[in-house]
TrEMBL record:
Organism: Billgrantia montanilacus
Domain FAD/NAD(P)-binding: from-to ranges: 5-334
Extra remark: The active site is a redox-active disulfide bond.
Active site: 451
EC id: 1.8.1.4
Domain Pyridine nucleotide-disulphide oxidoreductase dimerisation positions: 353-462
SS bond partners: 49-54
Name listed for the protein in its UniProt record: Dihydrolipoyl dehydrogenase
Keyword Metal-binding: no
UniProt similarity note: Belongs to the class-I pyridine nucleotide-disulfide oxidoreductase family.
Keyword Zinc-finger: no
UniProt catalytic activity: N(6)-[(R)-dihydrolipoyl]-L-lysyl-[protein] + NAD(+) = N(6)-[(R)-lipoyl]-L-lysyl-[protein] + NADH + H(+)
Length: 479
């Protein structure tokens, strides 16, 4: 038997590495198991988020957005940039460097906090035992009083479009293109599909997004979703709703995709195809048979509100449990679990987890949509404010979008905030804080905001809940 630990975490993604660091900070002897092999042939930390998800995609989104700005928007500000071009290989190299810096940074944080990194594939083989198999096939069993499963998720593959090297790819493959495809197909108009579609559309691809559902971004407030769809279409994304992919065929260096819509059977040809139809929990083989950790039919591990499994001392967090598959949700669950193991009282407010789509403009939301509230029988009042009326948005050449607040009609308590606009991902934190503290719309309306800022749109939306917006014609009379 190898070393014994107070806590062993399986997986070093944003849930696992945060849980491990927090546990070590609280004085617990902690180890974190990771099997991810990086491009240099060594184990790297950070999971999907840092290696092939959140971070590299944002690097490409930022670079491609700056390219579009320089090519099309600078002249509006009096900046003549001349003939602007994009070196895709250099853009990719920068992305890889950022990933390398951050994954290496986690290794440094482990060392600074006393977390033992264990390389290999972790498996729970008992209530207090984790078996780790290294790349050579050697298995070592470790004891731990507490085990945290943070194995993450992987992209969903669908039978009609089997992955084909360099032609039909998942989100990971879409981050590795070395040239701009002339015709790009994207299956799935969710967060990942819209972000990746935006990157390559900005760089010159003719992008078609095939979405099986008839509604666009149903999890977003309908007014915000409608405006987002209009803005993305204006940018060149051809989003086909109600388009169910039925098959594909690789012909040389092209992919022929067959799909059905309201008009019948259709066919399109692409140079590259990205499959972005969601992610599934990576839990197969993570827990040995007979341990007692329960899984549902989709592979998610059963946990309570504090991420305890059915086996005492075994916890599960992040993408392999219920809830939204978000890095920050996983991180907060990791902190909560570490605190609980250390004997502290801890819980999470799952109603106040923000979501962001990093297109341009960004789309961000937290809490209920107006349609959610009405479905639950809650009478609401809303306030919206367009960035077209914002002085800072005008100065930034970013007047598209709006901020919207949904409040309980009886209590004035804020139920949700939805924003489409520049820096929406930063501004949504105001909505998260408002929900955490049970704020009313009046609380935000009475708050002094700096001028000129994009956040003033949130202030004006709060004022608009009662018809008191200053910089917009009001529909209601002052009380």
């Amino acid at each position: 038997m190898a070393d014994k630990f107070d806590v062993i975490v399986i997986g070093a993604g944003p849930g696992g590495y945060v849980a491990a660091i927090r546990a070590a900070q609280l004085g617990l002897k902690t180890a974190c198991v990771e099997k991810w092999i990086g491009k240099e042939g060594k184990v790297v930390f950070g999971g999907t988020c840092l290696n092939v998800g959140c971070i590299p995609s944002k690097a490409l989104l930022e670079a491609s957005h700056k390219f579009v700005e320089a090519k099309h928007d600078f002249s509006d500000m009096g900046i003549e940039a001349g003939d602007v071009s994009m070196d895709v290989k250099k853009m990719m190299a920068r992305k890889d460097k950022i990933v390398s810096n951050l994954t290496g940074g986690i290794a440094g944080l482990f060392k600074a906090n006393g977390v033992t990194g264990i390389e290999g594939t972790g498996k729970v083989v008992g209530a207090k035992q984790v078996e780790v198999t290294d790349k050579d096939g050697k298995a070592t069993t470790y004891e731990a009083d507490n085990i945290v499963i943070a194995a993450g998720s992987v992209p969903v593959e669908i039978p009609p479009t089997p992955l084909t090297e360099g032609l039909i790819v998942d989100s990971t493959g879409a981050l590795e293109f070395q040239d701009v495809p002339k015709r790009l197909g994207v299956i799935g108009a969710g967060v990942i599909g819209l972000e990746l579609g935006s990157v390559w559309s900005r760089l010159g691809s003719e992008v078609t997004v095939l979405e099986a559902m008839d509604s666009f971004l149903p999890m977003v407030d309908s007014a915000i979703a409608k405006e987002t769809q209009k803005l993305l279409k204006k940018q060149g994304l051809d989003i086909k709703l109600g388009a169910r992919v039925t098959g594909s065929e690789v012909k040389g260096k092209e992919v022929v995709v067959k799909y059905s819509d309201a008009e019948g059977e259709q066919e399109m040809t692409f140079d590259k195809l990205i499959v972005c139809v969601g992610r599934r929990p990576y839990t197969k083989g993570v827990v040995a048979d007979g341990v007692g950790v329960g899984l549902d039919e989709r592979g998610f591990i059963h946990v309570d509100d504090q991420c305890r499994t059915s086996v005492p001392g075994v916890y599960a967090i992040g993408d392999c449990v219920r809830g939204q598959m978000l890095a920050h949700k996983a991180s907060e669950e990791g902190i909560m679990v570490a605190d609980i193991i250390a004997g502290h009282k801890a819980e999470m407010n799952y109603d106040a987890i923000p979501c962001v789509i990093y297109t341009f403009p960004e789309v961000a939301w937290v809490g209920m949509t107006e349609q959610d509230a009405k479905a639950k029988g809650i009478e609401v009042k809303t306030g919206s404010f367009p960035f077209a009326a914002s002085g800072r948005a005008m100065a930034n050449n970013a007047t598209e979008g709006q901020a919207k607040i949904i409040a309980d009609a009886e209590t004035d308590r804020i139920l949700g905030m939805h924003i489409v606009g520049q820096h929406a991902g930063e501004m949504i934190a105001q909505g998260v804080i408002a929900l955490e503290f049970g704020s009313s719309a009046e609380d935000l309306a009475l708050t002094c905001y700096a001028h000129p800022t994009m956040s003033e749109a949130v202030h004006e939306a709060a004022l608009a809940v009662e018809g008191h917006a200053i910089h917009m014609a009001n529909r209601k009379k002052r009380k």
